[in-house]
Specification:
By secondary structure, this protein is an alpha+beta fold. The chain folds into two domains: 107 residues, Phosphorylase Kinase, domain 1 (2-Layer Sandwich), CATH 3.30.200.20; 171 residues, Aminoglycoside 3'-phosphotransferase, Chain: A, domain 2. The chain is 38% helix and 15% strand.
Length: 285
């Protein structure tokens, strides 16, 4: 499948009253617990506090709901083999009361979203987590597909999308250099057995507690395949010494690093993130 045929999700939102009704109808043991929105919710899912120790996670579109079954099947497996906490599902809800998708109740993990501070110890801890994730047995794990927007698969699926974005670049970015970075990424491929990846290693999905990386959350785009997509944070967040610490610990070959830079380029182009584009082009000079 190419990007031209990827559907645009029809996102829908719910409120705390509907979540309370779903909980009362399907999990009466938790009826009466307060439900309130989290401070920062995601794009693919809305998240609510359920009491003080749980959260409710509801997909905002049918495409995002494809991840629910995957998370319930695989997160308990992953949680037992990585060095940091990850969300563990407690119950799976069904469509109801006008809400049309499966949904989940999770354990709540305390922590604040990470910030963009240039901290090599943070980068090292994150890389250690991703290395451990790659070592989880991938047998039977979900390959790239619509459930994770083809992360872990070949970059070619986003080729037309990326080249259209390159064509619209303004004067501040050299199109030839950007095209060279993209084509270098396309020339490389993952020639090893598939491994587990998270798929969306971003600040909002990395929790900090007491100044250290404390948990990794939101595995909706996880799968097994090429782990290059997990290295995008090297350009979107990390700089200088932190980027070098991350690269040294993550221990990937030059081709994987080039594909990671390609994923970062695609993301920066579709979000018009000029700061990240500048980081990518400067790093490849």
């Amino acid at each position: 499948m190419r990007a031209d045929s990827v559907p645009v999700p029809d996102r829908r939102h719910v409120d705390a009253d509907l979540v309370s009704r779903l909980i009362a109808a399907q999990f009466p043991r938790w009826a009466g617990l307060p439900v309130r929105p989290v401070a920062v919710s995601g794009w693919d899912n809305q998240t609510f506090h359920l009491g003080d120790t749980m959260s409710v996670r509801l997909p905002t579109a049918a495409e995002y709901a494809l991840a629910v079954e995957k998370e319930h099947r695989w997160l308990p497996v992953i949680a037992s083999q990585v060095p940091l906490p990850v969300p563990v599902p407690l119950a799976k809800g069904s469509p109801g009361d006008g809400y049309g998708f499966p949904w989940s109740v999770y354990e709540w993990i305390d922590g604040a979203p990470a910030t963009a501070d240039d901290l090599p110890p943070f980068a090292d801890d994150l890389a250690a987590f991703l290395v451990a994730l790659r070592k989880v047995d991938p047998d039977g794990g979900p390959p790239p597909g619509l459930h994770n927007w083809f992360r872990g698969g070949p970059l070619e699926v986003w080729d037309a999308d990326t080249r259209r974005a390159i064509a619209t670049l303004g004067e501040g970015i050299t199109r030839d250099r950007v095209t060279r970075i993209w084509e270098e990424a396309l020339r490389s491929s993952w020639d090893h057995a598939p491994v587990w990846f998270h798929g969306d290693v971003a600040l909002n999905n990395l929790l900090i507690r007491d100044g250290a990386l404390a948990a990794v959350i939101d595995f909706g785009t996880c799968g097994v395949g090429d782990p290059a997509c997990d290295l995008v944070i090297a350009w979107t967040v990390l700089t200088g010494a932190s980027r070098e610490a991350f690269r040294a610990r993550i221990d990937v070959d030059q081709g994987t690093w080039a594909r990671a830079r390609g994923w970062a380029l695609w993301k920066a182009l579709i979000t018009s993130d000029e700061a990240v584009l500048a980081e990518i082009t400067a790093d490849s000079a």
